[in-house]
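Work Package 3 (structural annotation) set out to generate three-dimensional models for the target panel prioritized at the project kickoff. During this period the team completed the workflow that converts sequence records into discrete structure tokens, so that structures can be stored uniformly alongside our sequence database. As a representative example, we reproduce one entry of 418 residues exactly as it appears in the project archive.
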Amino acid sequence: MTVAADDCFAAADALMPLEQALDLLSSRLEPVTGSESVALRDALGRIAAADVTAARDVPPHDNAAVDGYAVFFDDLGADRDTRLPVVGRVAAGHPLGRPARRGEAVRIFTGAPVPEGPDTVFMQEDCVPDGDHVVLRPGIRRGANLRRRGEDVVAGRTILTAGQVLRAQEIGLAASVGRSRLDVRTRLRAAVFSTGDEVRDPEGETPSGCIFDANRYTVMGLLEGLGCAVTDLGILPDAYDAIHAALADAAPAHDLLITSGGVSMGEEDHVREAVEALGRLHFWRLAIKPGRPIALGQVGGTAFIGLPGNPVAAMVTFMRIARPVVLRLSGRADVDPPLFRVRADFDHKKKAGRVEWLRVRLARTADGDAAAVKFPAEGSGILTSMVEADGLVELPEDQGPVSRGAMVDFLPFNEVTR
């Protein structure tokens, strides 16, 4: 599968609100990944490619929630002790082998199948053994300490849905209904590269005027956190022919090409020219801070994303703009991260008309509430601010100045890095 034949990344020239941009991308993008069957042990973190329907009830039989005695409720005295013969012993995996009869009790242990007939289980602490009989106290309710067949899952129920990320609990649920394999989406194949004669890999010393390449490693980490299969194309020189050749070679083998910086109108920014020669490129002018126009397009049938060059802007725009694109292309259904209301422990001057993200860490107020403490430096090149922060405060487009004590929306990093 490839991205849509019509240009799904085309954008209007006008400044676009973030919410409109996300809605537009969501409506245009379809999964480009295929599917494969994997063993449960290999399914963690993958995206379900198909619904999973339970072929059996869970639990598959009534079972005891405690160690004790299984009895018929109608055999019990309402206001007096009841003495019943103990006719058998049932442990987990070892059923009685026959229906129980009225007027008898069955010794039973936690998780063991309740024989056909009894509808109530006494805790052993509430019973008094008396030779081959047991004395049961009054006051128990019908159905006590009994787990009913199918109370967790009923056969025929859809327990997992296509597009769902498979966590440990989803894998455990699949195992509980007898599934040993699951159909999952193949991993989105993403290739990451940097450009610039001044950019160097982080080893040794850099010549004067050069910098180490932080963005490429950051972006690769973010993509891998989203389950992508990532190819490192390295650092491409500021030369049109080299960039054109690298993109033309990488596009057929990947679902996504992504870089940061190098797509502006400068004389040395050859990425834009190469992408346009091989496909299409559009700049999405979004009303956001930090960030600048995000480059979205196609190289042949492969999606292309060009992030801003400043490291903070690259990370923030990846989390809120590139991430939904990556997830949609991957076949994931839930692409909108949750926001949590917290109290602002800062004042901030903001003009309405754009979305702003502030780097914050969470602290506890005297009354135990969570409060967002803003990182003091706001520059887009200060990567340490992302290390020391717990997440972002997202201020909506119509928001004006923020005063200390106001309620704001908090976006934890762990909600946008997976």
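The chain has four domains: 18-34+186-330, 41-45+48-58+151-185, 63-147, 340-415.
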